[in-house]
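[job 4471] stage=fold_predict status=RUNNING
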Amino acid sequence: MTEPTLSTRSFRKGLLAHLILVPAWTASPVLLIGGLVSAGAPHGFPGVALSLGLGAGLVVSSNFKQRLPMCIALCGLGAAAPSGYKAVASVAAGVVSLLAWLCKGGKSDFARRPALWEFLSRYSKDYYAQAELRGKLSDIQKEKSCFAFHPHGCLSAGFTINGCYNPEFGRAAGKVNWLCDYNLRYKNPGFRWKCDAVRRDDFAINAADKKTFQRLMASGENLSLIPGGFQDAVAFEFGKECTVLKRRKGFIKYCLQYGYRLHPVYTFGESETFHTFTGLRRLRMKISESNVPMVAFFGWPLLPFLPRPESRILTYVGAALALPHIKEPTNQEVDHWHGEYMKALTKLFNDSRAEAGWPSAELEIA
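[job 4471] inference complete, writing structure tokens
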């Protein structure tokens, strides 16, 4: 694929790419919550409480056989609404039921759309003032490598734009499995459609669950993840360089068990993509431990759910930390290599910040 020059950049197509990427993640949760509230609201507070309870059941269920009784109950709730509200409540219940069916365990995988991957990988970075992949690209190997991206930010621009949909990363690393939250991957219909649509023989977005980790690592496939997860998103503050890592050790243990090389990856400018609500941090952090993204954000004033297009996102890949192959690592061994990884991440940050344009930035590891 030909790399775009300054003269061939297209902000309009970059904007269109983001109007595909971002709503694919955000639209389904909004429709779900809105549909549940609309279906129950005609019955007052008890109706809303009941509909939200049914919604929680839909989220934790694993297949449509389990979801069907809850969908029937929700549709019944909508049909029982007073005549003046029945149409809206019934449509809302129908929308929620459709979302439930589109999750994994309902509809089969969506069809691949090669043209979509080509479009996103070609134009998504044109949305930003600058989006580049830098660092130790020559140190990357095409097997048994794990790439740990920091920070998560609100919508993971570095992970998504400079990593996932960057052909340069693919050329350096070969096939990479991009891992994300299981519920996001399989229980968010919009995101699931997008992930299924862009799947290729050399590219896949998978769930970051234990079973997937072990399956991929047993076969030596490269993988990438954001260790801080949704807690990283809660810690996000505009202009502040922070990542949640001190208690995130599972990926270290897996890398030890399978003898993987581990690359720290840091994105400068991620912290300037959105403004966020920063209050109630302790409560939001606690809730996020259950993989619930407790984030409220505001980006581009024209379309606040999109990142600020004037942002510069520069992603640096650090040199690999060669972990030993220890089939059953002790807690002490995991702690040791976790400490070594934090040192490697801090070194990458300090060595790259001046070149990136943030010479006085300081990294906080929470």
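[job 4471] summary: The chain has two domains: 11-102, 114-365.
[job 4471] exit 0
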